[in-house]
Design goal:
With 182 residues, this protein is an all-beta fold. Helices cover 0% and strands 63% of the residues. The strands form 2 sheets. Strands 1-12-3-8-9-10-5-6 form an 8-stranded antiparallel sheet, with no helix packed on it.
């Protein structure tokens, strides 16, 4: 059985263009991210959430070392799928929720597997969604699941989150570490 420990939580006291969780220790087997986010976007569609990593104490990597794939289902029954080649970020499609009127939020859970393994790249998987009968577009409900890869080796030491617009005050990102007790 694995032990799960809280590593860090950031709750925004003011609107911010990005959130960075740094000084992540390499003492866990996997990481879990839990996010509740809204952005300053005033109309539908919701913003996209992006992630970048820093490894082995370096700065946030903005190079073309990331790939993403996702599937999206919406209230209108329109399904969307995408995949991208090497790019400068992991794209968590439309999971930064809009923030107009009664604020709908985006709830996302992601796992970063073997983040401290220095012999291979890093894999992230996620599921999340937006559900609100009060959003700018009416009855907006959607769910997305997907993943991304980071092709550089080295232990992940920081995670940088940003979106198409600023994150609203009250947005929360938490990072947990999984330790295998065997």
């Amino acid at each position: 059985m694995a032990d799960v420990e809280a590593i860090a939580t950031t709750r925004l006291e003011d609107n911010a263009a990005s959130i960075t969780i740094s000084s992540i220790p390499g003492t866990y087997q996997h990481l879990e991210l839990r996010m509740n986010l809204t952005t300053t976007r005033a109309s539908w569609p919701s913003d996209t959430l992006y992630l970048r990593f820093a490894h082995t104490g370096g700065s946030i990597d903005t190079g073309s070392h990331y790939t993403s794939s996702a599937m999206l289902g919406e209230y209108s029954t329109t399904e969307t799928a995408f995949s991208n080649a090497l790019t400068t970020k992991i794209d968590m499609y439309r999971l930064g929720a809009i923030g107009k009127g009664t604020v709908p939020s985006s709830n996302v859970t992601a796992q970063i597997m073997d983040y401290a393994d220095t012999t291979k790249g890093t894999t992230l998987i996620y599921v999340g969604g937006v559900s609100s009968a009060f959003s700018a577009h009416g009855n907006d409900r959607m769910v997305a699941m997907g993943g991304g890869c980071y092709s550089q080796t080295g232990a992940i030491t920081s995670i940088h989150f940003y979106s198409d617009n600023q994150f609203n005050r009250g947005s929360v990102v938490s990072v947990y570490g999984w330790k295998d007790d065997s």
